[in-house]
Each structure stands twice: as structure tokens, then as C-alpha cells.
């Protein structure tokens, strides 16, 4: 199945479009087709081009976001992006996937993407779940990154950061974002070579250099350790001689 989601953005504010472009560029499954400051230009585009997902502002000159959707006979899945909460009831009456209040974080943005994906990608019956992360062998993982399938060798992984429905895999000189849950990786990666040290982090045990308080030194990064896991993590990485 092709995971690419064809996306466009409509907002009369240049900075808002810039932020959306930045967020979209960080999600491998999203393919940005076009951006529009004019809702009328967006309307013409949508009538002529198949689009999976629309990011849409509400208050715009000439044609509001809500009215733009009403004009379309077959609108794409839509996530509203607006500074006003007042229009949320009407937006959801128009079957909006989500309603993001500006300024919204990347994590909140990803929540909206997850909701859209659940509608765009049907569940697979009696088969693997529709993730793009698989164990390739005991030596590497196979991940989908920016539309490419690639190997990431376990020996190169320093730590993995959870981002809601996505993870960011950190090596010494690169970062890879792919669609997956941290819980799945905790169950898949070999233990104790890889340790879940926090609700948002898995670390490679051999890449940890030191611990100070509740922070692990992994290369130039500092990774938090949950208080409830600190003793176990310390014992597995450093032994049980000194936990001060």
C-alpha cells in the first residue's frame, strides 16, 4: 500500500503556511502538493486535482474555510487550522477530521495526522498492522523514511524518541522519523541491549556514557529517566555498585 497522503494547505497568513510546510516536511507519509493564500485559487485546484488531506484556515477574505468546503461536492479530509475556537461546531458538522487552534505544536499536529490516517488507511484483517516499521534481522531494522525503505543498523542507534504515533530514531549523525509506536519498538528490540528508560525514550545501553541525577548522557544528548525506572536502568547499565 502506498502510504503517501497528498496534501494541500490554505491560509491567508504567510507565517501560518510556513509553519504547516515545516511540520509536513517532517512527516514521511505526507506529500505537500500546493499551498494557497487565496481560497478561490484553492477551490479551483481542488476541483481539478485529487487531494487526500486539506489543511484549512477558517477566516479568510472572499471565501471562508467553512464555505469553501460547502462548495465542494466531494471535499477531501479536512483539518481546520485557526486562531478561533468559535467555529469548531460548524467545522465538525462538515465532518472535519480535527480542529487545531493556533499556535499548535508539532505533537498536536501529529494527533490530527493520526486521525486522518485512520480514515485513509483501512485496518488489515488477519494480517500485520499498517505500520512501516519491521524487524529486518538481528542486525538491522527496516523503516520507511521520506518515502524510502531503508536499513538502520542496531549498532548505529543511540536512542529512540517517541512522538505520539511516530518515532524519531537517533544515530550518531542522523535522525529518522517513521510511523510507529514506541511501545511496539520496546517489545521488538532486543533487551537489555535497548532499554525503555522513560515514557518517551528508548536508549541503546552501550551508548550511555554517564548518569547524573535522572539524566543519561548519550553522546551530546541528555535523556531523562523516569524515577520509577532509575534503579533498574542503573543496575542494567552500570551495575549496582553506586547509585548516588
Structure characterization notes:
Helix content is 27%, strand content 34%. It has 244 residues and is of the alpha/beta class. Strand 6 (133-135) and strand 7 form a beta hairpin. The longest helix has 15 residues, at 106-120. The chain has a 5-stranded parallel beta sheet with strand order 2-1-3-4-5. A 5-stranded antiparallel beta sheet has the order 11-10-9-13-12, covered by helices on one side. The protein has a 3-stranded antiparallel beta sheet with strand order 6-7-8, with no helix packed on it. It folds into 2 domains: 5-120, Rossmann fold; 133-238, OB fold (Dihydrolipoamide Acetyltransferase, E2P) (Beta Barrel), CATH 2.40.50.
Give the biggest beta sheet.
5 strands, parallel
The overall pLDDT average reads: 85
Number of domains: 2
CATH class of the largest domain: Alpha Beta
- CATH topology group of the largest domain: Rossmann fold
Name the structural class: alpha/beta
Oligomer: single chain
Number of strands: 16
CATH superfamily of the largest domain: Response regulator
- The outline comes out as elongated
Beta strand %: 25-35%
Helical region count? 7
Helix content: 25-40%
Question: Per CATH, which architecture of the largest domain?
Answer: 3-Layer(aba) Sandwich
Order of helices and strands: EHEHEHEHEHEEEEEEHEEEEEH
**How do the strands line up in the largest sheet?**
2-1-3-4-5
Low-confidence stretches: 123-137
Radius of gyration: 21 Å
Amino- and carboxy-terminal Cα gap: 51 Å
